[in-house]
Design brief:
Layout (H helix, E strand, L loop, with lengths): L10 H26 L41 H5 L18 H44 L18 H16 L9 E7 L5 E9 L3 H15 L11 E8 L2 E4 L4
Antiparallel strand pairs: 1-2, 1-3, 3-4
Helix pairs in contact: 4-5
Length: 255
């Protein structure tokens, strides 16, 4: 007795081949379309601004975030006058009869007296609001800083900050863009040398917690910030030690 070979359904194989060909054709069409009409993406450059003033050779005592003594005076509250509370309109009495002239005259006098009293009250209220606003501005200026552009505990005579604070500010701004770490409490201590032209001439890794991702992010931040360093104000090679942590950057002035 001879066995009959099972019939093979070739329809499924043909469908799979056809589907593969169609998908491949669609993929190639999309690739060709992307090359023919590339998507235009607007790249936005990231800018960062220092929170300290430009460095000087001998900074004076003051606040590193203060713009100068010329801005110590409080601005006049001109906008407060624009937002004055409108005087509520006086209630209009019922229309008097044309024949009752005495009642009409008395009503007009009452309206005038009421409007005058409301104007006086509004003037006193506005004066109190302006005085309170000026007091708030004075207290804000007093607590914001000394009113002079400088550095805390500095003894110089020039308006500005020292170079260490300037470099630290640049590094902080760049480090916000590059920070990355894999360990719990990473730390990197770097000694930087900046030549008279404002270029990083040398960098030395003083200490590291061993987080490679954090080390790379520190190196990228140094490269990014170093592109826009100004030259040291004393025309000497700058040497500074900076401690990088996820919480921020500090300068170790004692080393």
């Amino acid at each position: 007795m001879t066995a009959r070979p099972a019939a093979i359904d070739s329809g499924i194989g043909v469908s799979c081949i056809a589907s593969t060909v169609v998908h491949l054709a669609v993929f190639l069409l999309l690739v060709w379309w992307g090359k023919l009409f590339p998507v235009n993406m607007n790249l936005q450059e990231t800018y960062y601004v220092d929170v300290v003033n430009l460095p000087v050779a001998s900074p004076q005592a003051g606040s590193p975030q203060q713009k100068g003594a010329e801005e110590e005076a409080a601005l006049p509250p001109s906008k407060l006058q624009e937002n004055q509370m409108a005087v509520p309109p006086a209630p209009r009495p019922e229309a008097a009869k044309p024949s009752d002239k005495t009642a009409v005259k008395a009503t007009d006098q009452n309206d005038s007296a009421f409007a005058e009293r409301m104007a006086k009250l509004e003037g006193k209220s506005e004066a109190k609001r302006q005085e309170a606003a000026l007091e708030r501005l004075r207290s804000k200026v007093t607590t914001a800083g000394s009113g002079r552009s400088g550095m805390p505990a500095a003894t110089g005579k020039e308006v500005g900050s020292d170079f260490t604070a300037y470099v630290q500010s640049r590094l902080k701004d760049a480090f916000r863009e590059t920070i990355s770490y894999t360990s719990k409490n990473p730390e990197v201590v770097v000694r930087l040398f900046i030549d008279v032209n404002g270029r990083i001439s040398k960098r030395k890794l003083e200490r590291s917690s061993g987080d490679r991702a954090f080390e790379l992010s520190v190196q990228r931040a140094i490269d990014m910030a170093g592109e826009k360093f100004t030259h040291p104000p004393d025309k000497k090679v700058f040497e500074g030690v900076f401690v990088f942590k996820p919480q921020g950057i500090t300068s170790d002035r004692g080393k």
